[in-house]
Amino acid sequence: MEPFESYLPRDLHRLRALRRDLAGWLDRTGVPPEKRDAIVLAVHEAAANAIQHAGSQVTVRGARDEDKVIVVVSNSGRWSGGKVEAEIDRGRGLTIMRGLMSHLDVSRMPDQTTIRMRLDLDAGDEEKRRSGDDPARIAC
Predict the structure, then answer these.
(1) Count of beta carbons in the 10 Å neighbourhood of residue 126
(2) Quick one: pLDDT band at residue 76, thresholds 50, 70, 90?
(3) Whose CA is closest to 111, among 68, 82, 80?
(4) CA nearest 63: which of 106, 15, 116?
(5) Is residue 112 part of a domain?
(6) Domain membership flag for residue 19
(7) Domain containing residue 30
């Protein structure tokens, strides 16, 4: 499967298209709906913070590696305000991202902030979906 890549200008209105495009890519890679939604929300939080505080284009890249999804959200601008972790956590964004993802790393350099996220997938999730045994499915 092709990796995901999106570039966003400093415009919060573009987050809707990012969520839609990312969700579609996750669906095509076979990520179960509840895990897809967790990834989309975590990426939304990271991208929104970067748009609000970094003052530059935001890049979102994702890859699926069998039992995990890795997403990197980065910007090439200088973070305005205080410490990145404090600014993100002020609105509970970092807390939300940590709660949703298996691993989260925030790195800050003078002209770039990068948030690396990983969500581990249960190896049986995709098989359950294919067989119809996924408890998240609702029978009609």
Answers:
(1) 17
(2) confident
(3) 80
(4) 116
(5) yes
(6) yes
(7) 4-129
